[in-house]
Amino acid sequence: MSGMVSLHLRTPLLESTPLSRVAGSEVWLKMEAMQPCGSFKLRGIGRACSHHVARGVQGLVSSSGGNAGIAVAYCGRKLGLPVTVVVPLSTPERAQEMIRGEQAEVIVSGESWQEAHGHAQSLCGPDRVLIHPFDDPLLWEGHATLIDEAARSGLRPDAVLLSVGGGGLLCGVLEGLHNNGMADVPVLAMETRGAASLGVSLAAGRHLELERIATVATSLGAKKVAARAWEWCGRHNVTSSSVSDLEAVESCLRFAADHRVLVEPACGASLAAVYGRHPFLRDKKRILLVVCGGVGVSFEQLLEWKQNLDREGP
Ligand SMILES: *Cc1c(COP(=O)(O)O)cnc(C)c1O
């Protein structure tokens, strides 16, 4: 990839004393929360944006009001290309501000992500491309670099633990494992119960679409995982599991206390597997946990979610 700009950073790989103590084994954290845009998304989106710039496109479009939209905006600013992010009405003002902070134009359109996405598609043409938040081979190639880095550090895990929304991260991590001679390393794929598009599909043995999303882990809110993610599950040892929103949020709070880092409940779903001593991890000696991160969080917001979820009960 000579001449291609790399927009993401190499992230720290930490052996976590507090999480290792809970798990009774080594837990290694790949700290994607430390990326400039706060999540692993920059790896894949940076890869896709650089690719399109190299072939001469004049503008970038995104349909995500979350971490993907922020990453596209950041990449556009770094690469000197105008970016338009179309977000649904439900997108918090704070998220819109972060996108504008990266000098992108924000268009608020539609009740749902599908409607915003439709609008975003209508803005595209030969020299203005839409960067998909999870379903794009260029994205997976970029996400795979996090496994390249872990492998280069000499880590050979006997399990990888990550969160699944649309499955872009899963596709990238699996690609990375296969590229680095770790095709036999099992993966635990975590979701929250209100966004279990992969879990529901695996349980039914069919690639299903959820009717609705109901979770505070909005970054996991894809109704259907990418076809490629579904196919991967047929040829790699992937175990799917889910936790409640309360477990995800409490895990974020515990992680903040343990590591002084804030992450979204989307990431808390993975942390909950360790804090909740998931049976899958019982016989594993060296676990690689992808701390996927996310900017849609504050300490006050975590406390508020916890309060509301405590009140609702299980
Ligand atoms: C996007 C995102 C996910 C889910 O990734 P997919 O590629 O959609 O599966 C998880 N956590 C965070 C913080 C994200 O931004």
Commentary on this structure:
With 314 residues, the protein is an alpha/beta fold. The protein has two domains: 13-40 and 136-312, Rossmann fold, CATH 3.40.50.1100; 41-131, Rossmann fold (3-Layer(aba) Sandwich). The protein is built from 13 helices and ten strands. It has helices at residues 17-23, 41-54, 67-79, 93-101, 113-122, 137-143, 145-152, 168-179, 197-204, 227-235, 245-259, 265-275, 299-312, and strands at 13-15, 26-31, 59-62, 83-87, 105-108, 128-130, 159-163, 187-192, 238-243, 286-291. Strands 1-2-10-7-8-9 form a six-stranded mixed β-sheet, with helices on both faces. A four-stranded parallel β-sheet has the order 5-4-3-6. α8 (168-179) links the parallel β7 (159-163) and β8 (187-192). α2 packs across α3, α11 (245-259) crosses α12 and α11 (245-259) runs antiparallel to α13. Pyridoxal-5'-phosphate binds at residues 39, 41, 67, 134, 163-170, 219-220, 222, 264, 266-267, 292-294.
In terms of DSSP E residues, the strand content is 15-25%
Cα separation of the termini: 49 Å
The count of helical stretches stands at 13
Order of strands across the widest beta sheet?
A: 1-2-10-7-8-9
The helix content is 40-55%
What is the H/E string?
EHEHEHEHEHEHHEHEHHEHHEH
Bound ligands, named by name, code or SMILES? pyridoxal-5'-phosphate
> Could you please say which CATH topology of the largest domain applies here?
Rossmann fold
Whole-angstrom Rg = 18 Å
The count of strands amounts to: 10
Number of domains: 2
Name the structural class. alpha/beta
Q: Which second-level CATH architecture of the largest domain applies?
A: 3-Layer(aba) Sandwich
Whole-number mean pLDDT: 96
Taken from the alpha-carbon principal axes, the silhouette is globular
- The poorly predicted ranges are none
Largest sheet: 6 strands, mixed
Q: Would you state the CATH class of the largest domain?
A: Alpha Beta
